[in-house]
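TODO from last week: model Copper resistance protein CopC.
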Amino acid sequence: MIFWRRALFERARRCFCDMSAASLLRTVCTAGRPAICLLAAIVLFAAIAAPGQAFAHAALVTTEPTDGAVLAQGPAQFSLTFSEPVSPLMLSLVRPDGTPVPLTSFRLDGHALDIDNPQRLGSGTHVLSWRVISADGHPVGGSVLFSIGAPSAAPAVSEAVDRGLRPAIWIGKVFLYVGLFLGVGGAFAIAWLAQGGRSGRRFVIAAILCGLVAAPLSLGLQGLDALGVPLARLAQPGVWQAGLATSFGRTVLVALVALGLGLLSLVGPRGGAKLFALAGLAGVGAALAASGHASAAEPQWLTRPMVFLHGAGIAFWAGALAPLGLAMRRKPAEAAPFLNRFSQAILLVVAVLAATGFVLAVIQVQAPAALLETAYGRLLLVKLALLLFLFTLAAINRWKLTGPAEAGETEVQTRLVRSIGIEMLIVLAIFGVAAGWRFTPPPRALAIAAAQPASVHIHTPKAMADLSITPGHVGPVAASIVIMTGDFGPLDASQVTLVLSKPDSGIEPIKRAATKRGDGTWRVDGLVVPVPGRWTARLDILVSDFEVVKIEAPIDIR
C-alpha cells in the first residue's frame, strides 16, 4: 500500500509539472532536506486514510412512521425530516418478500420530504429505503423499518460498496485544486505580478489542463456516489445527470469557466490577459462558494462570502509560487519586480486568509473539544500544523530573504528558490488534507445528528408503546411516551412509570413517574442518562388499581 501511494504521488506530480518545475522540486529534495518531501507526501495521503468511512452530512431528524413501529394498517404517506434541505435521489419500499417498489411521488416542504404510498400494504415488516443529496452536495442514505399488523423477518436491503470510488473522488478533488489554485492562480500571478513574464507559463498551463480533466471527471464520480453505484457505471448518462443535479454540479460548471478564463489569459490576446486572469481568480472563489460544507453552513450571508475570499486568497498565494520560483531560478534580475509586487501584496492576502479561515473554522467546529473528537477536527489540526509551518517559512522569506534577493545576492536567491519549492510541497499537502474533508461531516452537522432522539417501539399482546428519548445521547434528556393497547386501541392508564436500567455498568435502575399531557402523550423531564450504550427501558403501566402491565425493550443511547 505504501509503495502504491508513493507511485500515485509521482504520477500526480508529473501530470502538472513541466521539466523546469520538476527541476525546482528536485533541487529542494536534493538539498539536504528529503524529510520535507517525505513529510509532505505522508500528510498528503493521510487525508484519505484518516476517516474510516464516508459519513452522512445531513442528519435524519425524524421519520413517520418511526423506525421499528408496528402499525394497524399501511400509512397513506411516509415522511422524512432532515437537519437541512435535501433532494431525493432514490426512494423505494421493500416488501416483506424482498420485492422493491419505487416511490416516485413526493413533495419537499423545507427540511421535510413527504412521500406518497402508492399501494395497500400487507402484513409483515417493510423497509423504506431512501437516498438523498444534502445541501452541501454530499449523498446521504438509510432505511426505516416498520411493520403492519405484526413484525416479520426484515427483508434484506443490499447496498453495493465500491472501494475504488472513494480514492478516485479524493484524487479528482486534489487535481481540481491543482487546476484552480496553481493553474488559475498562476495565470493571475503571471498577468498581474509578473506583468506577462514567460517564466512558469508551461507549468501553469499544465496545471489548468489537469483541472480541465479533473472537473468533469469529478462530476461523474459525484454522480456515482450520489446514486451509490460502482465505478463500472461511470459512462451511463444517468450518473452524470445525477452529479450535475447536486450542488457540486454548480461548482464544476463555475470551475470550468474559471479554468477557461485562466487559460485564455495565457494563450489569448495580451490586451485582455489581465481582465481574463482577474475574472478567473474570481471564478475560483465562486466555484468553492457554490457547494461544500462551509458554504452550506448558516448564516450563508456570511459563510459564502468567507469561502469566496478564502478561495481567491489561496489561489493568489499558491498560484504565484511556481512562476515566482522559476523566474528567480532562470532570470533573477528580471524576477525582482515580480518578487517585490508579491511581497507587498501577500501581507494583505495572508490577513484575509487568516480572518476568513478563523470565521469558517469557528462556524464548523463550534466547540474546541471537536478538534480531537471528530475526524473533521483532526484533519483541521493537521492543516493548521501545515499552515503554521507555511506561515513561518513565508515570514522568513518575506522579512529575511526578499530584500537581499531583490538586491541581487546570488546565494540568497538560491535559498529563496529552494524555500519556495518547499512552500509548494506544503501547499500540495494542504490540498490533500482539504480533499479529505469530502468524507468527514463537520462537527456542526454531527451536533445536529447527536440531537436526534433515541426511539424504540415496544409491542406486547397487552400493551404497546412508542418511547423517544431526546436527545438520544448521554446527559440531560426528556422522554416522550405514547401508549396503546396491543390491538392498537386507546389505553386509558392512570399512571405510567419509566424505568431505565443497565446492570452491566453497575448502575441501579433509574425510575421516574411520567406526566400526562393534554395531547395524550406521557412525558418525563429532568432525566439524566449517565453512560452510553444499550439500556433496558421498561414501562410500568397502571391500568387499574389491581393491574400493572410491564413492557420493556432495549434502547441504544449514544
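Done. The mean pLDDT is 83.
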